[in-house]
Amino acid sequence: MDPTETGHNYDALAAWWLAQMQDSTYGVAALERALTFVEEGREALDVGCGCEGRFFRALMERHFHCTGLDISGEMIALAARRYPQAVLEVGDICSWRLPQRYDVITAWDSTFHLPLDRQESVLQKLCEGLSRRGVLLFTCGGGEERGSVRGEFGGKSFEYSSLGVPEFARLLWRFGCAIQHMEYDQYPENHVYMIAKKR
Questions:
Q1: Which Pfam family, giving just one, matches this sequence (predicted)?
Q2: Is 90 exceeded by the pLDDT of residue 19?
Q3: Which CATH superfamily is domain 3-198 in?
């Protein structure tokens, strides 16, 4: 699925998603674990930030300056009303240029929507976008093989792709990061989050 199509689908779901998730803490425990590996700095980027801002809340409580990127303009418009102090941009992480390096980069349930052939280059971009000893938190499908599947969410069709856990681990090391923690956090669902740190 082209990221633009993904954006249009999330535009249509934005108001519904905010109603469902505005008080959610989904993924925040993983973020809090990732923050234990942060040594210094207070610049954070959330890729696929969505509209309700649970990661923004957790980060701002710890005095991080937050930047959010999302392919959905409607998601960003809703987020801007809730978090006017955050820097929010509509964009495709495949082509978006990171304006600076970040001490924390999160991509929770976002980059797994990318086309399979863009997974490696985006992971490299995120790793290169980390500051010295910066920390990356992202989610992926938990299988061992690369591949793509389609699924339905909120009445819309989405594509999900993964390079496979072993390949993500290999690439993280190649791109200068070492895994600090990896967890199948929704067993028996095939969902993994990884925390990696700039070497």
A1: Methyltransf_25
A2: yes
A3: Vaccinia Virus protein VP39 (3.40.50.150)
Q: Cβ of 132: how many Cβ atoms within 10 Å?
A: 11
DSSP code per residue over 17-43: HHHHHTT--TTHHHHHHHHTT--S--E
Predicted TM-score of the model (pTM) = 0.97
Spell out the domain ranges in the chain.
Answer: 3-198
Q: Strand, helix or coil at 19?
A: helix
Residue 108: closest CA among 192, 166, 44: 192
Sheet with 191-198: strands ordered across = 87-90, 65-70, 43-47, 102-107, 130-141, 191-198, 177-184
2-11, 91-100, 106-115, 170-179: least confident range? 2-11
Distance CA 171, CA 190 (A): 20
Q: Is 136 helix (H, G, I), strand (E, B) or coil?
A: strand
Residue pair 43/108 in contact (Cβ under 8 Å)? The answer is: no
- Position 154 confidence tier, pLDDT thresholds 50, 70, 90: confident
pLDDT tens-digit series, residues 42-71: 999 999 999 999 999 999 999 999 999 999
What 8-state DSSP symbol labels residue 81?
Answer: H
